[in-house]
Amino acid sequence: MFASRAAVLAFLGRTLLALPVALALWYLASPWLDALAAHAARPAIAAMSDGTIAAPEMRDRRAYFKVTLRAPYAGARTAPPAEAQLDVTVSIYTFGIALFAALSAGARFSRRAAPIAIGLAVLLLLPAWGVAFDAMKQLATTRELAPYLGFSEATRTAIALAFQVGSLLLPTLAPVALWVALNYRAIR
Amino acid sequence: MARFAVTFVLVLVVLFGLELTPPGQAVVRPWTGGVAAASAAVVRAFDGSALAQGKTLYDPRSGFGVTIEAGCNGVEAMLVLLAGILAYPAPWRSRLAGLAVGAVAIQALNLVRIVSLFYLGQWNYAWFEWAHLYVWQALIMLDALVVWLLWMRSVGNRADPAPVPA
């Protein structure tokens, strides 16, 4: 546990000092981090939509997914495949890695290689959740694609909830929760 | 640790799910309107030109406005703090006190966020985007973490009294 209230406030001060540096480093690395998250999200989007997805194109911190969906079989009247272009601002899902780095730098007990490596590894892949469900939300809310996707109301609700978790909670909660979990004994 | 983690996740999922339901939104929407009104009052205290309409804070002179959407009303950070406080073993009185202080700390910083974004957006949109999407998101969650750490320390101090000399 932090020895005193002053120790917590000193931790806050060091974290606030480290945060701009961490955000600058994240910004420099974000083209690669964003691409990694987008590529990791691709199989998840393909599996959930039952479609074919080309490798994402990365431009200006956004990932562009070209999705091809097959129409349900209806004999001779089967419709041709549908194509959709989805774009996701990936950087809003990857910046949490900077917060984790700043938190790790903020306390002496969390400046350890193994927990930092574990946290960074998780935060390299976790943004794929946000990217995948951002893309799925776009697909599920496009009325013209409903017959191709065949989603039930429950599935659409689950996608909406997963998108909200991925966009509102995970980007900032995941780094904090990881930092707490990886240093729980020291914090407590 | 495992008990804390499981309880935290379960409580957070339930609270977050409740927030998204129609009854939850019936609370969150007026709350967000209140945040916009409070932000307008703070801005008016400085230059007297901001108005709030629903969840939108705008400047009638320049026409610039910011809409307070989910994620910008401080509710999610309060839910995270609530889950952290409920998951940690502590007397209910301490929990309620921690939640009250934490809610004030989060909402006070959130007012600073909204007012700063309101001015920043009128000055430079690129900086507004940066502050809105990355910097303030991190700062609000850091606020919740620091409140929780301070609260946990105060609970720990009360739970582990100094040894009485024999």
Could you describe the 3D structure shown?
The complex is a heterodimer of chains A (188) and B (166). In chain A, strands 1, 2, 3 and 4 form a four-stranded antiparallel β-sheet that branches. The mean pLDDT of chain A is 92. Chain A contains eight helices and four strands, in the order H-E-E-E-E-H-H-H-H-H-H-H. Chain A has 188 residues and is an alpha+beta fold. Chain B has 166 residues and is mainly alpha-helical. Chain B has five helices and three strands; from the N terminus they run ααβββααα. The mean pLDDT of chain B is 90.
Largest sheet of chain A: 4 strands, antiparallel
What structural class is derived from the secondary structure elements of chain B? mainly alpha
Low-confidence stretches of chain A: none
- Alpha-carbon Rg of chain B, integer: 19 Å
**How much of the sequence of chain A is in beta strands?**
5-15%
Q: Which ranges of chain B are low-confidence, i.e. pLDDT below 50, for 5 or more consecutive residues?
A: none
**Secondary structure tally: strands of chain A:** 4
Helix content of chain A: 55-70%
| Helix percent band of chain B | over 70%
Strand content of chain B: 5-15%
Shape of chain B: elongated
Distance between the ends of chain A: 4 Å
The assigned structural class of chain A equals alpha+beta
Number of strands of chain B: 3
Shape of chain A: elongated
Q: List SSEs of chain A in N-to-C order.
A: HEEEEHHHHHHH
How are the strands of the biggest sheet of chain B laid out side by side?
A: 1-2-3
Which features would summarize this protein structure in a list?
heterodimer; A: about 190 residues; alpha+beta; four-stranded antiparallel sheet; 4 strands; about 65% helix; B: mainly alpha; three-stranded antiparallel sheet; 3 strands
Short description:
The complex is a heterodimer of chains A (188) and B (166). Chain A is an alpha+beta fold and 188 residues long. Chain A is built from eight helices and four strands, in the order H-E-E-E-E-H-H-H-H-H-H-H.
